Amino acid sequence: MDDMRATDGSAAALDGAAFDEVVEFTSGLIRIDTTNRGGGDCRERPAAEYVAQRLADTGLDPVLLERTPGRTNVVARIEGSDPRADALLVHGHLDVVPAEAADWSVHPFSGEVRDGVVWGRGAVDMKNMDAMVLAVVRAWARTGAKPRRDIVIAYTADEEDSAIDGSGFLAARHAHLFEGCTEGLGESGAFTLHLPGQAVYPIAAGERGTAWVKLTAHGSTGHGSKPNRANAVSRLAAAVARIGAYEWPVRLTGTVAACVTELAALQGLTVDPRARSFDLDSVLGKLGPAAVLVDATVRNSTNPTMFSAGYKINVVPGHATAYIDGRVLPGGEDEFIATMDALTGPDVAWEFHHREVALESPVDGRTYGILRESVERFDPEARVVPFCMAGGTDAKQFSRLGITGYGFSPVKLPPGFDYWSLFHGVDERVPVDALHFGVRVLDHALRTL
Fold first, then answer.
1. pLDDT at 11 > cutoff 70
2. Which candidate in 21, 44, 130, 159 is catalytic?
3. Exposed end of the chain (fewer CB within 10 Å): N or C?
């Protein structure tokens, strides 16, 4: 096991307790079942009280906020040393997706620490980052360290559904708590992706927008034995089939183009994604495992996920509904709307069921540079690249407050550890060494930013 407790010039802000606490807090948060089944079926309050108490122990004054009873958010502000500097938001969600215990090697809410690994739902999404933030903040209180900027810490509810009880509620009703925040750090970035001979750390500098769509077809009711040329089920099924089969055209955003260029350079290739002769498929084929950072974010997408119609086998229903999980690139919403109009046709109506903006953040400025340097400081072999997330995070809601977001939840992983497959997957887990690395990187980044 790598000893991430070894000190260097930046370690004065940390103490040995920080490395013990990050494991304790990750395990403790996992043991609090905050399963979000959607539709309001979740209760984050016990986890919110857990983190609020540990923040309060440092002398901070955390605020607990609810739109709906039990759906609790926590916000606290740490005063920085430079009152002229803009504030920085650090956010993590407390809810997790469901887990079926029978499918797991350990109980998903055990928080078991075994063979240097912490097991359980939320170990990577994202109670590990929640715990890292707690450990760093508490270490600062013990050692007297202080960040340069004010740091607003937000632990949110409902990220795994609509965020209406979480970051959406905070942005709409409690914007004053985020006064001065211009940038934010959240989930899904700065983890190790092992390539042949290289350790790549992707930092999220963009997110596709959310475009969840409801389709509705109307038709004539009737007996199932008789011809029906206005069959709502047939009309809807045809539209869903067209949408599912549609090949969206490639559209390279600035973040994705930068990612492709830098990944190709790591393979010794020089490419220009803006050139007319650029062949994306050919380049992706040469990137090997690294293509996973790109292939889901080069176009809009639409995946049929739900279909509902009828109540009896011999009755033709008068209407049918379906749902599509749509995702939209930055700048791609007009194309999405026009394409959905064409694919649904005249007999099927569609509307947005849930809609959130796409995001893109600078990768050529001071903030991204410090995030990159912070990773490379503690892993000299690291190769940091920007990437765009296929899905979305609470950064979307916080962007309404003018906050530019980055996905930065640093963990150093051993070869063969398929981190991405564990998001919402079975046997979710995180190595203790990865948590220790994350504490050190996060401490350095937050104090330097």
1. no
2. 159
3. N
